[in-house]
Amino acid sequence: MSNWAAAFSEGGAEEDGLEEDEVWESTECDACGSFDSDLYYCLSCVQTLCDTCWEEVPAHGRNKSRFRFPNINGMKHEKTPHHVLKAIQPAFFTPPNDASYEAMLKEDDQASWFGVRREEDEKLPILLQDHGRFPELMAASSIDSRKKFMQQGKGPTRVVKRTPILVSFVGQTGAGKSTLIRLLIGLKLDHKTSNGVRPQLPVIGSAISDIATSSDVHLYPDPATIQTENPILYADSEGLDGGERLSLSASFRSLSTSDSIAPPFVSEGSFRAAFCSERELVWSDDPSRRTRDFIVAQLYSRLLFTFSDVIVFVQRNARVIEGVIETMVEWAAAALETAYNQPILPYAVVALNATDESTPEELWDVNVSTSAILSSFSGILYKNLVFKRHVKLWADRGKIVTTLDELLGCYFSKVQIIRIPTSQSPNLMYKQGHQLYSEISAAGSLAQVRKSHLRMLLNSRQLQAYLDRAFDHYSRTLEHPFDFVQASFLNSPVPNNLGDNILEFAIALMNHQIEEKQPRVGKEIFEKLSPLIASCIMIDAIRHSVLGTADRIFPENMRATAIIYRCNNTRIGHTSKGHQLQSGIIFKHGEYFSNITFANYRDTFHSLVFMHLSDILSKLGSNSDDSLLQQARAHRLHSDVLKSFYSTYKSAETLGIPSHNICLGCLSGSPEHVLSCEDVLCSACIEAYGRPQGRNAYVLETCPIGFQHESTIEPQYICSKPKNAGVRLLSLEDGALHSITQLEVLRRVELELLGKISVRSLFDMISANGMASIIALAIATQEWSLDECASKFLDIATQSFSQSNLRKTRKLLGVNKGALAAKYRSSSLESSLQKAFDSDAVLFGPESRCLGNTSIPKVMITSESADGGTTVFTNYHRGNSKSLPYKVVRPNSVKGEMKIWEVARASLTFSGHFKPFKHDATERTYTGHGGYPSDPIEVMQHESERLWPSPTSTFPDAVLSIGTGTGLNNSKFKFSKEATERMMWKPARAATSEKPEEEPHDSAWNQFLGTLPPNYPSSKYSRLDVQIPHILPEKDDVSALLAFQKTVRANIRQEEIREIAMKLLAALFYFERTGIIDEVSDEEFYIYGEIHCRLPNGRSEVKQLADLLTDKKFDNPAFIFQETHGPEQCFPIPSCSLDDMQRSCRFRLPGIRIRLSRSMAEVDAVLRVTPEEKFSISGFPRVMQETE
């Protein structure tokens, strides 16, 4: 270490030395004492000088070239700016004493990403441990970014899709990997904006120790990019050939005595702990495979080569560059064939560390250095035994290699060589460090561009999922390759067209043949598929009224994607490797091709589909037939084809079809309805094969698919939102135990409607998170009354938030230092949720789709994923949508579906109360909503627009957001801790004024309103929050919950409840035109239509609605249509219609005629409850257009 570098660390006493996070900086000239912004340091003189004083030193002056001035301690008189020293200081800092060094090593444990754990007993297995470092880094930096968005007034759901660049440093122990990472971080560390936050830096090796500094693989963020869309992460791998001695960090690390799989440096119950995992290395039973050298060279190499965008090979001795390249080739070759469908090969940078400063100036340029070194090997490519063996290996694969550059190109996308000087040349070190950073940044960006072109660019959430699968895979075997494409199915977008679904079917058939040990013959697969495809094309044409014969209907460019027969690399993997067998062996170099593709089989396949399509269309007869009769005939023919195809298989699960992503009835519709047999159909297929029960309801008694399971199913009642009705939305924000307020408000709404209409019939979609998710899930999936729901809520709260369930709170160490560990144990919460909800019932399943007498609202529950992105769980399915600031969880099959209690648990992981929730089936972790304003209204708005694009109105019928109670900051009274069975208050400080507490949820609501167009109808959007004239109890104070519930009931404003209830009642009714606009004159137009009710006929709620409308609270209810500035046109509800509703549960009103002064007039239609109270029905006000 040079004198100037030593000066950073020396000093003996602590007050004289510098801590690692301090910046060495002089503020005045040592010669004249002036304060100059431009100060320089002389390494030989050991002085800080201003520009003027520098020239006065003889060794620095103009005549320095005429005299030979001695260099003190071998250091040159080099004019080094202070900003250069500050930037490179971290690369050479060493602690002043052993105690500081030990503290640094222990702190560096926080950066540990993954590694192995070996017990002294050789009989015990070796464990591969994931220390949760990557998701912690992504979540912490994402949270910081989102805080900035919130401070700037942007929406809480604003999430940037982040795609990390992984840079791995590999080399011999002591080569200087950690030093280079420290240099790169120091160059990009802005001391002016770091706010005193200590950067995370690896610990460099001791100059007097021959033991490796650290073990395992550590991960460090680049401070310049960590909060950007493309954060650079540096992976510091344990050194090659480090031997079996414990590293210094491992010797200092304390052993864990708990049963937790989290290492000792990760706080139990913390955010990071939820992502810690361990796997037994099954292949480590052989003693030769238990050594650290083997694990580093064989296991770590596979993981880093497979996932790195850039690999930096560090070598300290430039004179042995030939050995470095040998190591590179052998290291890469060991990993190359252990993964297929790898999107790209990594870029490589060779860093020749501690290069002598006397090296010619031109060789410090990376391009010149690379060219010079690689060209120097032109004569020995066939003399070096390692190179010769690999050249022959590729020749056997059909690729002729003539230069070392070509050989390296077989293993890396590109190789660059850069020289790094010693610490004696800080200016050159600064320059080369920036050059190294530029090479890494450029290579990482290019890697991302190429991955994006191949549609294999992984965001942080996807990358963690791939890493989990890779950890699983390489723990089981080192011989069999890891398949990127197979892993991609976990995160692939939902197929949303017939062509993609045909591919899914073809793949499923191929895999089924493999499992049944049948030969994979593409021709037979497509021959079997062709009748089904032809019939699906026919059904799609009939449903969309496509006219013509098979020549017209048959799509000219029908797409059937490739099915791989021999080569396991898809088009993605071919770019980087060539042809690769399932065993991983690369058997041929060359471009992608498939012997079973639509292109090769197009003519025959077209002929088969066209033939079957022509045949089935001929059976339909003339299109002059009545359209309804033709549709019925078409569905009967299609049903025969379905049964013929599916009857040879037991179920969709055994066939391997992703049944929750494809409608098995038509291969093109969105699979929305799960039958009791677990087959899934779209709404169009339900209408085709179900028995109508009213206008928008169907009963399905048999399964039309025809698998070998029993076709008769439990009768299933399915009700959908009428096409001409608007949308009614309910948002329930998280308030922890204060969410009991929302239950009380909903209960009062039901009471205002005399208990005749259930809340679940008043809304089309309910969104919620946190404790409010319990309420939403109960309404959408259970047959509980609101009183029963309140009872369950109290049970869950009492068990989960009790004092006996408290756990020790610890501060989360590492990057996210402000986060808190869980306050309560999660076991009681999970058991109470499983007790309340059927522990096996899934959210998107038959259990949640049939609740007896009522229609079922869509429900969406929000949570946060590990990287801070909003995640949405739903009881519905819709087509895939891109460019949304959140991700909808939609597994392929029922096995991956979240159970109802798991959804609630995933959303209940709010900051400070319960630890993150890991879903075992998918290995995904959810972290609640991180303490941010949690009103999920904005996400619900997005979802409703995609589910129900409104044909009649731009705006919803009703949007209701219910708060969790607002108290007064300066009230004279607050809740008593003893307030359990009765309302009990105790004095607080005297108030100077009484102002409501500022709630972040109100801010989120106002923020949402700000996103609406200026002309939005404010009457449609309601925010209801109960004002409590006291200081509220803590949100987890279960001892005050009953008193709080009673207080809420006493403070609900009746006039607000009345208005909300009547708005929702009026929105039950909607208008449908029955003919064209009748134009009598230029100023007289008539529209004919009918008023309908959303409540499906035949259900008891229709009778209860009649009881409600005839109650004394209503004064001759009627429907009134009124053109803007025009007269009212009143249509009373006939008594005979009310009688029919009470007797036969049918809502049927006589047709009506509406007079308009112009065809494009805006009309409002209202339900008159009393002479003074009128509320718009669904879809109004609006313009009654001809195209409606």
TrEMBL record:
The record's CDD domains line, in alphabetical order, gives: Bbox1
Against InterPro entries, the record matches this protein to: Acyl_Trfase/lysoPLipase, P-loop_NTPase
The residue stretches assigned to a coiled coil in this entry are none
Is Lipid metabolism a UniProt keyword of this protein?
yes
Please list where the region (Disordered) is annotated.
1-20
The terms describing its cellular component in GO are: membrane
> Per the record's keyword annotation, is Lipid metabolism included, yes or no?
yes
- Molecular function terms from GO: calcium-independent phospholipase A2 activity
Q: Which UniProt keywords apply?
A: Hydrolase, Lipid degradation, Lipid metabolism
Provide a GO biological process annotation: lipid catabolic process
The protein here is known as Uncharacterized protein
Give the taxonomic lineage as stored in the record. Eukaryota, Fungi, Dikarya, Ascomycota, Pezizomycotina
